[in-house]
Write a structure and sequence with these properties.
The protein has three helices and no strands. By secondary structure, it is mainly alpha-helical.
């Protein structure tokens, strides 16, 4: 899991790393391994921050622009797939929390201790 980034990675290397991390998050989400997905997501967010500090200039060449575009397309596809898997889980958790809150409110209203 994770990767072996050089000490001072290029912008393209960071984008490539983000694609690998997003693939790992997608696999974890497909298997319902939310803890692993969250762990990889922490590394992903750190890489996004590294990219923000480095990606201040437009791509120098057409090839670099095309490379970035292809990597961004992969990132967006992975993001959409992850969201498709995560959203039903978030909705389910929201419903569970809502039920627990209602139960607590009823218990408090009628003086029943939990």
């Amino acid at each position: 899991m994770y990767s072996n980034m050089p000490a001072t990675p290029s912008v393209i290397q960071i984008y490539e790393e983000l694609v690998l991390l997003s693939e790992q998050m997608l696999e974890a989400a497909r298997h319902g391994n939310w803890d692993a997905m969250t762990e990889v997501q922490r590394v992903y967010v750190a890489q996004v921050e590294a990219l923000r500090g480095k990606d201040t200039h437009p791509p120098a060449t057409l090839q670099e622009r095309m490379q970035r575009q292809a990597l961004l397309a992969k990132l967006l596809a992975h993001d959409a797939a992850i969201r498709d898997l995560v959203m039903p889980q978030l909705q389910r958790l929201g419903e569970l929390l809502g039920n627990a809150r209602r139960r607590r409110d009823v218990n408090e209203a009628y003086g029943v201790s939990a």
